[in-house]
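Researcher: Next sequence.
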Amino acid sequence: MSALSPTSLERKLDNLLVVPFENLGMTDVEVVGGKNASLGEMISQLPQGVRVPTGFATTAHAFREFLKHSGLADRINAKLGTLNTEDVRALASVGASIRAMVEAQPFPADLEKAIREAFAKFSAGNSKASFAVRSSATAEDLPDASFAGQQETFLNVVGIEEVLHKMKEVFASLYNDRAISYRVHKGFAHADVALSAGVQRMVRSDLGAAGVMFTIDTESGFEDVVFTTPSYGLADTGGKGPANPDEFHVPTPMPRPGTPAGGAGGRRGGRGGGLGAQATGPGSRPTDQGRSKRRTRVTQSDQ
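Model: Next structure:
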């Protein structure tokens, strides 16, 4: 099924609780948020040689049904309605209270059933399979506001019970102090932003390397270059600071075959990839990848 969903499918997605990534595309940002819509687009539209781990996403409809269950939304709105976000202590207290309420809230029976069924399909009976539970907000990367990085994502989650628990933590992270304050300052109504939780199979980054790739230069905005920041182990070791990743700029369009990299360049991070993490158990566990890898670039200039 094409990720570029026709109108009839879009209407159906609006009422679904869980959707496989293969059925999603960039037209579905309001349904599953920007991150999960992008994952769906990559899985369904990229050439077969580009392998993207599959999974599924809960929808904005599912999130709102979760909040309506047992009157949780009303209790949240009552707390937020009287909150002065300039009062840092009050913000911290109200935020912590709301997050605790969300994490204690039971899933509606139909939503929990849909999640369990989707997880059973994608885990295929492998009790040791590890997953990432990722946040994806319906208000991400807007022209006049950036919500990126405000919500939680969890790695190496094993088993359906832990997945369900981490989903609640993802939902609760819509109400962390920073997110609450940012929405108020940017003039967004809290109820207008919904959260989707994506469940994606993890790859064995402990056997290789991972990183982040940008399709522009992040500092200058120059568009004719791909900027990558790889490190050994999980990519978040670079993003969150434990590892200092390598950096490579690769020009686009690519140079002609048989010619040098044509200006491609990179530098080795101060700690190289010496601190990585395994994808084989709960949590992101830092692991020493060995002294030789600390002094070795993840990617060489000719690759």
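Model: The longest strand covers residues 130-137. The radius of gyration is 21 Å.
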